[in-house]
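Re: the 179-residue chain
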Amino acid sequence: MSERAFAAINADTAQPVDAAVLIAMVPVEDQLEVVLTRRVDSLRHHAGQVSFPGGRMDPTDTSLDAAARREANEEIGLPGDAVEVLGHLDELPTLTGFRVTPVVGLVTRPVAWVPNPDEVARVFQVPLAWLFDPANVTAMAREIRGHQVTLHRFEWEQEVIWGATAAMIMNLKAIVTGP
């Protein structure tokens, strides 16, 4: 879904809350893998969904990069100094009232994932090449709040990647490989 479509759908929503996620890419042999989490079922927002580590800005965060790094450390034990920030994707307003900035980063050293049991049910990695392969994504047209949108969905092992997370993956793909 495009940023314009999300903005139009959210026109009647209160002031969005700034948030950041970390699209952490891990070198594995001769490819990059993207780190994803499945959230625990007891969370208030996006319970049980697959997402990138991240969350809302805290008053102590000096930047969106700092917020993404802090959240990744809190959620999966990724030390902030083990991430080289490569850039940002398009800001994405969500249907739940967040304005999310995806921070793209390269994990620069081996890390053992330590999921926070209050937030993360599972940490897993998906090869970037697999995510970029058109055979692995399905698109479906939906009407949301009176607007026609295209939603994307991936199925990796037993996990379903959809919604804002899939939209961010599609944005990353468009930037890296072209639309």
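The CA atoms of residues 74 and 108 lie 18 Å apart.
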